[in-house]
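Inputs:
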Amino acid sequence: MQLQALPGFRDFFPADHTIRTHIFAAWRTVATRYGFEEYDGPPLEPLELYTAKSGEEIVGQLYSFEDKGGRQVSLRPEMTPTLARMVAARANGLRKPIRWFSIPQLFRYERQQRGRLREHFQLNCDLIGEPGPGADAEVIALAIDVMRALGLTAGDFKVRLSDRRILEALLRHRQQSDAQVAVWHQVLDKLARTPDAVSRQKLREAGVADADADAIMGLAQAKAWEPLAAPSLAAASASLLEVVRLLNVMGLGDYVEPDFTIVRGLAYYTGTVFELFDTRGELRAICGGGRYDSLVGAIGGADLPCVGFGMGDVVLGELLKDRGLLPSTDARLDVFVATVSEQDRADALALAHELRDAGLSVEYALAPQALNKQLKHADARGARCAVVIGPDDRARGEVQVKDLASHTQLAAKRTDAVGAVAALLAR
RNA sequence: GUGGCUGUAGCUCAAUUGGUUAGAGCGCCGCACUGUGGCUGCGGAGGUUGCGGGUUCAAUUCCCGUCAGUCACCCCA
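Outputs:
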């Protein structure tokens, strides 16, 4: 049996790693553009960090074990508890609001599916210390701009936006019991992929009156903001409507649509919740987030309101691939230095090093090789330019500088070789 | 964790009703090509047909198990 990566874990061959780097670069660029600072924490944490606040159901999905010191530990399944601890530890000394982002590798022990592995990288952006809707709009705009930076448009994805307080108000207004509320969450979460009759049946079994079911379903499935103006919802929806207004002002209105069926699995969300989906509905959520005003207090004692999101690299990568937006994964070399004879090798090494000192990516044949083989290799490596050094050139104090794309070649003084190459590459 | 489908070369795939030496394209290496690359031609390496067992004169093909992938559940960073 061959040794291979564990199920749900990935080997990143150079071509794969290029894609990963491409995504990370967009994440860092846009987060930095929004004034966010990068942080990180340990990939391995005490098990209690997650069992204490995330609920017992999540323990089954933790990649946890006992370490050699007898400690119960877990690979991190999410970044937010670590963030909450770090922020709480220095809460008094940090200027608010705090804008932090991280790109942690996260783990879960679960059977894998398309877009869901046992390991992935996730951009986490959190804005801490600002309770108002301005912060919510800011992080949502950040998520949208990450997608735009990768070449995706409003035709490719949408932000589905809601606020937990709206559903709560709906249910409270209709006096649903706690057990019924739980059923509602389940039903609404999978409404789009479930036949209507099945949903209705579930609600009936939970003792929800048909009249209540009609009313709540009707509002929950609304595809417009207008129903939020109803007097019974006005207080609960004021924040969300302001978030929408701000996004419109930023010019990002096209990317946002209402979806009051968004529930989000994590228990700690308290207000705004949102998810990013591909418009064709082929993939699972690309990004999810929302407001969690009590978590930092619960973990670290400091009472700080937060809003943030996580965006994973797996589904995002699938989407970019489907839309033909992946970067070229070919290696790009600036210069290949080729020799005609073994007597040219010393000059070739010296020149290659000068070119590397000038910041160029340079290769040469490590062992003696025919010139045509070297140039073929230069071509295969995607080099823009080749420098050929032979006995005749050396006798004249020259080198030949070739533009591999245009098949042109010109002689340059050996003393000016770096300048000649730089000039060619600048074209 | 439950169920369906699928496992053949590095990749994408062939192989007749079960039939004797498992093929092709791409990629890789070499030669034509001892001071000039993309093309072309020729050659080569690379497989325990995922693994284990069973049926059969004979298994890539049929059956069982197992591992892995995938899809749907459960659930969702």
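Remarks. The first helix of chain A runs from residue 14 to 33. The CA atoms of residues 342 and 368 of chain A lie 7 Å apart.
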